[in-house]
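Running this now, will post back.
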Amino acid sequence: MFYLRLNIPVQKEILMASPRIIAGQAKGLRLKSVPGDITRPITDRVKEALFNIISADIVNSKFLDLFGGTGSVGIEALSRGASFVQFIDKNQAACTILKENLIKSGFSDKANIRKIDAFTYIQSISDAYFDYIFIAPPQYFNLWSKMVELIDLKIGFLNENAWVITQIDPKEYEELTLNNLEQFDSRDYGSTRLIFYSQISNV
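Update: finished.
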């Protein structure tokens, strides 16, 4: 097997293609995309790598998809066996498309959508307990790092073995000073980096 070097316009075209559910109950389903550049799309390659890392632990987990966009990542989690996904997005167009995609995939009864700013949501949360938090905000505004730092301060709503996962451009990366979370892995896939954080063990 070999891979062709793709030029930038082709890469952009791939990123903006209709998202696809890769595996599980809704395998092969094409989702509706959010028009414009208000979301940070994820390629099939990166999404498959993400869920290969999570593996079977996704089953029966509770997943928080901040900056939900089309819902591609959260719906993939549901397709692979997550018990519940909370989607957060402040954009009305994204929330509308997300609702349509949940209906299309048949997972409306296992998900909730809130039209709210992600930072406001995290500030207000008190009684939800998640196993995975996925962060993929618009690029180059330092939102990913600010969100990780905020979650680090609000660590109480995470389950004990929870992961916080960010999707960024490698150029955005900065080492964060955290009190309750620690980075335990980082993977690069072309122009996308996935960074994984977990709670610092008190043992």
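Residues 1-16 have pLDDT under 50 and may be disordered. More later if anyone needs it.
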